[in-house]
Amino acid sequence: MRIQSSAATYSVAAHDDVLQQWDDVRGEAGPLELDLAAVDFIDPYGMSALTLFLNHLPPEALPVRLVLQDWPSPSGEPQSKLYAGSVAYLTRMNFWDAVGPLLDATPEQIPARPGRVTDRNVLLEITLLRTHDAISIMLRKTGEILQNLGYTVIGRGHILEVLSELCSNVLLHAQTDFGCVAAMQTYRSREGTRYIVMGIGDAGIGVRRSLAVNGTLASRLHSDAQALGVAVQPGASRFASGGHGGGLPRVLEIARRYNGRIAFRSGTGSMIYHGKENHRRTFDGPPLVGTQLRISLPEATLRPERQGDLTTPVG
Predict the structure, then answer these.
(1) pLDDT tens track for 20-55
(2) Helix, strand, coil percent content, the chain, rounded in steps of 5
(3) What are the two backbone dihedrals, phi and then psi, of residue 94, each rounded to the nearest 5 degrees?
(4) What is the model's pTM?
(5) Which of the following CATH numbers is that of domain 122-298: 3.10.310.30, 3.90.1570.10, 3.30.565.10, 3.40.640.10?
(6) Rounded to a whole number, what is the distance in angstroms from the first to the last CA of the chain?
């Protein structure tokens, strides 16, 4: 079985294309070849989505032959010496530790992150969170990084609030032993606007099945897309007792405050939210196990100081 992406930037649309191709080929004989050689840049959503996808493939699809620009090296040169393009981004974000054992590659071919190198654009490398204690540790470390980089008190508080709400939601609702995968970095669009981008996801039961536990919502959950629309309304929760259902509406409120954007995927449902227009749209997409979100927030009001130039494309 083979999947090939033609996308230069691997984010929501590119991963949806991979999911659609996977739905088409999953009945074929394995293992899987995943050709991402056209990809120049992978954002935090793409990295977390790939981590979840690879870790939840059936045994017949393994080991996966992953193809990236200049990886694996056809010359047999140890891959730890090669850092360019998408391979460099993945290495800095600790991607290989999360998926290495699933790949058709020797230990020498797996890139190793250089020691004593600090990438100021990496705010949260790919992190697997299975407990509330792990979330608390992650939030403390991320808060220290944001403070050291000069983010305002209010700005970093809102960033940490989004991370806390979404990661904690996984533990409360997703019913998955694998936990939550989260990643965050900063980059600059082609227009020169600097953004924080978060990718957060799980491979759990999904939004629709979670909300369906609450019988009062059943008549509003005819599709996964409809379930996403319900999930972002205040008070909507799998718990009928009240006091829940404020997390996702609060995330949208923060995105609206900062003119951010949210892409929300679960099952066959998709939602796009534009904070500047305070407008959301739901539609159908390829089947996705669990729930995944991409949140982008312009950096101008989060961090008043300028960063060093970046050259990454629009996510």
Answers:
(1) 999 999 999 989 999 999 999 999 999 999 999 999
(2) 40, 25, 35
(3) 65, 30
(4) 0.90
(5) 3.30.565.10
(6) 28
